[in-house]
Amino acid sequence: MESNRQLLGSVSCGTHRRWGALTAVVVAVAFLMGCSGQEELVKPDESVSALGGSSKNMPRKRYDSLESKGFDVSSFDLNADGVDDQFHYSSGGTIARIERDLNFDHVIDCYEYYRDNEMLEEEYDLDLDSTVDVVRFYKAGKVSRKQYAVGFRADMTIARRYDDSGLLIQVQRDSDGNGTVDTWETYEPGAKKPSRIEVDTTGDGRPNQTIEGS
Question: CA 120, 112, 17, 104: dihedral to nearest 10 degrees?
Fold first, then answer.
């Protein structure tokens, strides 16, 4: 088991890597499209940055908390290549975390976090650079919010929120990448264009311009 864990960080297979990159692109397209769930609309005057604090401080892949001590660890070799590519961490029969190598390149690229056997959050590294690009948050088994880095850059700069039927109701953007949300787009459920756009042009985290949709 321990040797397999070391391989996860060190083995790099050229063929797998190329196919892995293609897989990552396909998965990325799927993740950046629709999802379902429910999330209360965040008003600009209630939250300076609804990307989870600051986009630069958004919880990322939690290396510091990816401990195995105190957990029962089960590992699985899903593609029978001799290297384990899925790991379940549990305590007292309750799952706490699952790590997955989705494209079988011997590097973990998906982290799932659980509480009381219910998934709370998923983190994905879609471009194989060991940095999380997409985070999905769950409520009652459904995706409630999604945050991601545009162009696979280092910081999360966009958050999307959905109603209980899976329709987009709000998009929040850190358009200049300074760590603070500066654009809030409000959508009527099912609409393709926002009904209202609020913009912060002063950098204080509060909107000072409003554009009403047609």
Answer: -130
Distance of CA 9 to the CA centre of its chain: 21
2-212 placed in CATH 3.40.50.920: no
Q: Which two tokens stand for residue 162?
A: 């959905």
Write the CA distances from 174 to 68, 84, 144, integer angstroms.
35, 38, 20
Sign of CA dihedral 137, 146, 127, 183: negative
* Residue ranges of domains in the chain: 2-212
Q: Is the pLDDT of residue 193 over 80?
A: yes
Give the separation between CA 49 and CA 174, rounded to whole angstroms.
9
Burial of 164 (0-12, 13-18, 19+ CB in 10 A): middle
147, 158 Cβ separation under 8 angstroms:
yes
Whole-number mean pLDDT of the chain?
Answer: 73
Task: Name the burial class of residue 170, with classes exposed (0-12), middle (13-18) and buried (19+) by CB atoms within 10 angstroms of its CB.
Answer: buried
User: Residue 53: left if φ>0, alpha if ψ -120 to 50, beta else—which one?
Assistant: left
107 burial type by CB count under 10 A (0-12 exposed, 13-18 middle, 19+ buried): buried
Q: How much is the pTM?
A: 0.66
